[in-house]
TrEMBL record:
Recorded name of the encoding gene: tenA
Record's protein name: Aminopyrimidine aminohydrolase
Keywords attached to this entry: Hydrolase, Thiamine biosynthesis
GO biological process: thiamine biosynthetic process; thiamine diphosphate biosynthetic process
CDD domains on file: TenA_C_ScTHI20-like
Length: 225
């Protein structure tokens, strides 16, 4: 499954198989698959995720700043737009239907697990280059792609069908491939074709694994409203 999103993603994923399994097969995810996830846990997660997306939009905007080519800028700016125009809009829509206004959403108190993840990603970008930033951003993009695709095939309930359909969609899968291509091209441009042999590689893999562990913490937070 992890082979679909590019060469670098597959290599980074293979350096963190346990964390990746804990992330993509978390009890929260399995609860969306079979419909047993309590609705209040899901809405609590969505409210936190709305705040999360604000900071992720900032991180992807930082990727525009750290870009060195027009192709890099295009992918980064496309992701900023997808985040703000589509993903945040999806959260606003689901929450509004559940009686949570946009004002309520903005007033959400950020949980420490949420804060830790978004600020870790932003810090990777502030103090590093585009590679450090992309290594921190990749688990979020590819993990949801993998979860969406698997759940679309395995789900036994329609309770969370809208959420699953969003991340299983051809459009979202295309966005994952675009980010995978960006990661491969950015690495090759800066470190060469044999980028996994670079002295920077271990540190990039560590950043990828830490972000994956922070995704596990985010799901865990979702289970405790
Ligand atoms: C905790 C958490 N992790 C990942 C995503 C998914 N996501 C966040 S930004 C982005 C890239 C642009 O679409 C994607 C896919 C989420 N919503 N919440």
């Amino acid at each position: 499954m992890s082979g679909d999103y590019g060469r670098a993603f597959a290599l980074m994923h293979d350096q963190a198989p346990d964390a990746w399994r804990d992330y993509t097969r978390h009890a929260f995810v399995e609860g969306m698959k079979d419909g047993t996830l309590p609705r209040d846990a899901f809405l609590h997660y969505l409210r936190q995720d709305y705040v999360f997306l604000i900071h992720f939009a900032r991180a992807w905007a930082l990727a525009v700043v750290k870009s060195e080519t027009h192709a890099e800028m295009l992918t980064a700016v496309g992701t900023v737009n997808a985040l703000v125009a589509e993903e945040m809009q999806l959260h606003i829509g689901i929450c509004e239907a559940a009686g949570i206004s946009q004002e309520d959403l903005l007033a959400t108190t950020e949980r420490p697990e949420n804060l830790a993840y978004t600020r870790f990603v932003l810090e990777a970008g502030y103090s590093g280059d585009l590679l450090d930033l992309l290594a921190a951003l990749a688990p979020c993009v590819m993990g949801y792609g993998e979860i969406g695709k698997r759940l679309a095939g395995e789900k036994t309930s329609d309770a969370y069908a809208d959420w699953i359909a969003t991340y299983a969609s051809d459009e979202y899968q295309g966005a994952c491939k675009a980010v995978g291509d960006l990661l491969d091209a950015a690495l090759t441009r800066r470190l060469g074709q044999d980028f996994a042999a670079s002295p920077r590689w271990d540190r990039l893999c560590n950043t990828f694994r830490t972000a994956t562990e922070l995704e596990v913490g985010f799901w865990q937070m979702g289970l405790t409203p």
